[in-house]
Write a structure and sequence with these properties.
Distance between the termini: 11 Å
Number of strands: 16
Oligomer: single chain
Largest sheet: 7 strands, mixed
Bound molecules: NADP nicotinamide-adenine-dinucleotide phosphate
Number of helices: 11
Length: 319
Amino acid sequence: MKAACINSFGNENVFEIIDNHPVPEPKEDEILIKVSSSSINPVDYKHRMGNHKYILGSPFPIVLGYDVAGIVEKTGSNALDFKPGDRVFGRLNRKYGGALAEYAAASESCFAKLNKNIPLNEAAAYPLAALTALQALRDKGKITAGMQVLITGATGGVGHFAVQIAKLYGAHVTAVCGAGHETILETLQPNEIIRYTESNYINQLKTYDIIFDCAGKLSYRKTQKLINKGGSYISTLPRMPILYHKPLAWLAGKKVKTLLMKPERSDLELVNNWIMDKKLFVYIDQTFPLDAVAEAHAYAQSGMTEGKIVIDVIKSSPN
Ligand SMILES: NC(=O)c1ccc[n+]([C@@H]2O[C@H](COP(=O)([O-])OP(=O)(O)OC[C@H]3O[C@@H](n4cnc5c(N)ncnc54)[C@H](OP(=O)(O)O)[C@@H]3O)[C@@H](O)[C@H]2O)c1
């Protein structure tokens, strides 16, 4: 099958597009998907650079990409929830993913059925980022209506979903972002916008029940006085200083939390329903064909993007 492989860790030029990569065989609990699209998350380029090689190893050739949408091709002997032909989306749970290819396999538990009205070339933009936003706000932040929520990286992949989800829960949302971003902010409609590019931006912050640091740029140390009693600071980046702050925060009646997104089917189903009800949308910055994956990674890593970058796998397929 056609696949974007890497045979060493490094910059975006390590990608090689090959036509004879073996189609993965689904294990008992797995399904095999004919991939329509994938999307890029920062973890993909961190993997590409070898940041996690001491944990995940170097099983070259590696096919990256966690987010996927496509059609079920084949099911493992114990994978009973789907049948060939089902439209699905999900976040692959194999080591490095494997979505940047014509076929990908993973446990059936990390997929959900996708409504026929949701385009396959958009659906792959949701799983990892939308579930991160949902699990951070609902499970870590215990978000409820009327809460004051601050979201950094608010126009990025996770952040733009977080703004929408926090508003869905009835929170008052303050979005922190850089200069520009007018179009995406117009569609997201946060209650307040604060530009971190302005010199006095920390002074513009008020107090919050949840500070969701999607961008990983606003530490608990800097913001602890801005968190209401009983409130939470949540970071997408597990870091030692955060663990260090936990007991101090607890003494002050506040919580410091990190999260590791889990590919839960029930959450994907919720996202599917929100999309159908027009309560959640993805802002797609650009779509690249699989052949241009190196360019897509470079762009995603540039820090210039808004919302999500999609890889259209079908478009670049020979068939
Ligand atoms: N733990 C988990 O399970 C998990 C899951 C998903 C993601 N993550 C991590 O979460 C982070 C964000 O992921 P993402 O997909 O949203 O990435 P992304 O799409 O690249 O977005 C990052 C955002 O950060 C903003 N930003 C940059 N510098 C900033 C600053 N100083 N203050 C505030 N915002 C700033 C950028 O927008 P501007 O143009 O406004 O600067 C950008 O929108 C990544 O580090 C990723 O690895 C962790």
